[in-house]
Amino acid sequence: MKVFVDGSAGTTGLEIVKRLKEREDLTLFTLSDEKRKDLAAREDAILSCDLTVLCLPDEAAVQAVAFAEKGKGKLIDASTAHRTDARFVYGFPELPGQREKIKAAKFVANPGCHASGFIALVAPLIQAGVLSKRAPLTAFSLTGYTGGGKKMIADYEAANGALDAPRQYALTQRHKHLKEMVAVTGIEREPTFLPVVGAFPRGMQVSVPLAPEWLSCGWQGVKEVYQELYHGGVVRYQEVDTPMLAADLMAGKDGMTVSLVGNADRFVAVASFDNLGKGASGAAIQNLNLMLGADESTGLNL
Fold first, then answer.
1. Are 268 and 235 contained in the same domain?
2. In CA terms, which of 87, 223, 277, 288 is 20 to 30 Å from 165?
3. What pLDDT score was predicted for residue 37?
4. CB of 6 closer than 8 Å to CB of 61
5. What crossing angle do the helices spanning 149-157 and 11-21 adopt, rounded to 10°?
6. What is the pLDDT of residue 10?
7. For residue 29, what is the domain's CATH number?
8. Which backbone phi and psi does 10 adopt, to 5 degrees?
9. What pLDDT was estimated at residue 232?
10. Is there a single domain that holds both residue 105 and residue 153?
11. Are 182 and 218 contacting, i.e. CB atoms less than 8 angstroms apart?
12. What is the tens place of the pLDDT at every residue in 130-143?
């Protein structure tokens, strides 16, 4: 199978290229620096490859999808442009029925990093009918600075301590991941979303407090929903046996752990993963494997 990575100079693209170079079951195709913005060269590459991974700004991704619609090749889009587009299957295989949809899809939208954690925690509870779709949810998300791309990485690595304090962002409550968080989970109101970037390179932790009055079951019922769905593979339920949870708990890994902390009166669902792993490049590789008929975990660090 021949795979083209369109936009291989960015953080996500570089990570995907690094992983695919080590594969013996695939032929990796990339464009030279002189050709990577050449429309004709990009179109030829997309039409000649079995699968294309887009690691592009939204506008360029829309353009690339128009090319792909002319051919028979499959495509994964890691941008924000198509995550709620009806032509695309949402690339979170762990949701019920989603794995088979991804295997059969021509177009797959790779999830956003923050959205991946929120969806992993909320969607199963909505689908099981135990969480109200009208619940006033809050999502608190800690992320490493590599999720902000090359400029943020450069800023942090040159800061000499000036950026050590965590920084909350998206203060207007208009974060670009909110749209898919609502659409994929089926909730009827946007959560209050509090993303925070810290002075650590990799890792992500999304926390969603759950109040008993929003649920038709208690602590144990919520735990059972997670345990039934996440019992191995890339995403797994994990009990917490430490007094603290570090945001870089899963740094360097492509998996995700889902946990429930607190007590019967007040509890919090927590998803821990790597912003560049299950939050970006690792998720793209997992989806690529499913779309090309490879073992789902090939090339993943679990």
1. yes
2. 277
3. 87
4. no
5. 100
6. 85
7. 3.40.50.720
8. -85, 175
9. 83
10. no
11. no
12. 999 999 999 999 99
68 lies in the same domain as 208: no
Three-state secondary structure call for residue 258: strand
Strand, coil or helix: 125: helix
Same domain, 267 and 138: yes
Domain that holds residue 251: 113-275
The average pLDDT across 200-228 equals 96
Element holding 141 (H helix, E strand): strand 138-144
Between CA 206 and CA 261 the distance in angstroms is: 13
Same domain, 234 and 122: yes
The pLDDT assigned to 85 comes to 97
| Cβ neighbour number for residue 152 with a 10 Å cutoff | 16
Q: Specify whether 261 is located in the same domain as 118.
A: yes
Q: Are residues 121 and 105 in the same domain?
A: no
Among all residues, which ones are annotated catalytic?
113
User: Is residue 42 a contact partner of residue 66, using CB atoms and an 8 Å limit?
Assistant: no
215 confidence band (pLDDT: 50, 70, 90): very high
Q: Are 76 and 288 in contact (CB under 8 A)?
A: yes
Q: At 15, is the pLDDT very low, low, confident or very high (cuts 50, 70, 90)?
A: very high
The average confidence (pLDDT) of the chain is: 96
Q: Are 299 and 254 in contact (CB under 8 A)?
A: no
